[in-house]
């Protein structure tokens, strides 16, 4: 609604009030969280750890990461766990708006604390069968508007050529095998720094498979950008 004239927007806000999904206070129509609740969320401190792979507990949780740099919003726990599940499985769009506010906040901070920044962003694609069955890609829904708002270059160079099994019920070793040759990169990325975007990382197998395909296309550095991080010992999301 940001393109509407200010007076019209104020009128619509008055006629159709919008409320924070956390505290129920009145907020603008294009938001889902008030500023107080957004600031109160337990997000990763990117000021202290611009590259989360250098944070000891995260390094221990994902020791086999093939990508070079990691940025994420939070651990996969309340309230993010609910928001992501409701968006992915029930297409609850007001949770998308809340997640976009969180992602926007973290990305803005990440740009301030990282001297370098990716040349382009690739949202992790779904296989065509999965996309047709679900009807949408929830990662694209949440991340693309934020990336475009921050004038980032988005590419569709990565293609998922293998219809893999759902990762949630597989062991770490089987996850890796499941994703072998799953992705192919359709663009020459020689010398580029590329960010791969996904919603939740559990073992890192999917991101590693995407990283391999992108490095084979010539990229010099791969960043992983996630909404949430979880661990194999926790409840799965995939």
UniProtKB/TrEMBL annotation:
The lineage of its organism: Bacteria, Pseudomonadati, Pseudomonadota, Gammaproteobacteria, Alteromonadales. It holds the Pfam family DZR_2. GO terms for molecular function: glycosyltransferase activity. Residues 12-41 form the Double zinc ribbon domain. PANTHER family: DNA UTILIZATION PROTEIN YHGH (PTHR47505:SF1). It comes from the Bacteria. This is Phosphoribosyltransferase family protein. The keyword Glycosyltransferase applies. Belongs to the ComF/GntX family. Residues 184-224 form the Phosphoribosyltransferase domain. Keywords: Glycosyltransferase, Transferase.
